[in-house]
Amino acid sequence: VQHFFDGFRTSHEVNKVKLIDYETMKDLIDWEAVKIHHGLALNPRHPHMQGQSQGPDIFFQCVEAGNSFYDNLADAFEAKAKLVEEKTGHSFALYAYDGHPEATHIIVVMGSAAVTCSETAAHLVEQSGQRVGVLKVRLFRPWDRQRFLAALPSTATRLCVLDRTKEPGSQGEPLLTEVAATLHFAARHEVICVGGRYGLGSKEFTPNMVVACFQNLFQETPRPRFTVGITDDVTHLSLPVGDWLDVLPKGTTECMFYGLGSDGTVGANKSAVKLIALNTDLYAQAYFEYDAKKSGGVTISHLRFGPRPIRAPYNVRSTDYLAIHKESYVQQYDMTRYLKPGGVCVINCTWSEQELADRLPARMRRDLAQRRARVYIIDATKIAVQAGLGKRINMIMQSVFFKLSGVMPY
Questions:
Q1: What is the per-residue pLDDT for 41?
Q2: Pairwise CA distance, residues 194 & 226, whole Å
Q3: In terms of DSSP bridges, do strands 105-109 and 158-163 run parallel, antiparallel, or are they unpaired?
Q4: Which residues pair with 344 in a beta bridge?
Q5: Is 100 helix (H, G, I), strand (E, B) or coil?
Q6: What's the rounded Cα separation, in Å, for the pair 245 and 331?
Q7: Max intra-chain CA distance, the chain
Q8: What is the distance between the alpha carbons of residues 258 and 330, in angstroms, rounded to a whole number?
Q9: Which of 57, 123, 149, 353 is most buried, by the most CB atoms less than 10 A from its CB?
Q10: Ranked by mean pLDDT, which of 17-21, 43-47, 119-123 comes out on top?
């Protein structure tokens, strides 16, 4: 059995969630079935034999006899999902559709990318009325053909199936082959079905990549096999990806912190996001990037805050608040690449105001001027030493963040 909800990217982020209490969980479990399952375990007090050597006729017969268990699994999953909905109010359909009620162009996807696809499709429907949608697969094995077709809008004419895996030499990845076979067995030959790969090795999957997939579907002859998220200059399968698309709820504040591994930046940001999430009505999200060196390497903290739930399992790429906790980074990296117009840029450095113009690269000065950014400098390292904190600048920079970001009253 293989079922998919959210993947690595969402399981490793900090977010504001509503937990199901233990008493509710207790009512969802068939304790008698648990007892029976435990009773099937190997135990020297009541030994039994299993895994006998079988001839081909017996083995084949026994394997096929197991079909009945798989045939009923989808019903069992759905029954349990309905029980969860009754107890918690959350609906978990095995195959769930989001988007335009009469969509013609639909993405089929599973895992955390389904969240990105759904938010992007909703944005396209709301802003331009495009007839697009997303079909989220939550039960992959055993595949249920009838439930998949029931969730698929009857108006669908083109499907884009996304797989987060690669099977070299095959005609298609696992989800694509399942969807294509389903359409074939249902005689839905009028539906054009294409497939693509994304997110291999935890590669980012963002709203503008979702738009690229929809744009491929809208082509007169869409690419039948493609990749998205990279520039494939060898086999030339990649789709062109356009400019960044912001699909976050209005009022969401985005922040990026560039720190040095072991300087306390990540720990301070984890504390900050928890303070905001637990002590205000704001929703919060945080994700942290580290390079291979860990201690002494670059760390990037991605934080979001807003009045509405934040469903964005991808890194910040348009930031309101940019914090540079090590002065040498301004020479080594393109620090203003993701800064929004009118955003705040804070630099921890030993430079005076007069030295700043000479120390910052010309490109960075130009970007800050064009975006009318508010620039602040602070020697947090000196303050940390004076306060007896050693090299830990996190508390000082966290105070600066609360003062300048306006996320919480300071």
A1: 86
A2: 9
A3: parallel
A4: 321, 374
A5: coil
A6: 28
A7: 87
A8: 10
A9: 123
A10: 119-123
* Paired tokens of 332: 């080594």
pLDDT tens profile 213-236: 999 999 999 999 999 999 999 999
d(CA 15, CA 10): 9
Distant-in-sequence contacts of 264-271, Cβ < 8 A, 24+ apart = 264/392, 264/393, 264/394, 264/395, 265/299, 265/301, 265/325, 265/393, 265/394, 265/397, 266/290, 266/299, 266/301, 267/394, 268/394, 268/395, 268/397, 268/398, 269/301, 269/303, 269/398, 270/14, 271/398
Rounded-to-5 percentages of helix, strand, coil across the chain:
40, 20, 40
Of the chain, the end-to-end C-alpha distance in Å amounts to 51
Please give the backbone phi and psi of residue 24, each rounded to the nearest 5 degrees, phi first.
-65, -40
| Start-end of H helices in 152-239 | 174-185, 207-218
Q: pTM here?
A: 0.90
| Beta bridge mates, 254 | 304
Q: Provide the residue type at 269 as one letter.
A: N
Q: Find the DSSP H helices in 89-206.
A: 113-128, 145-151, 174-185
Q: And the tokens for 29? A: 């479990």
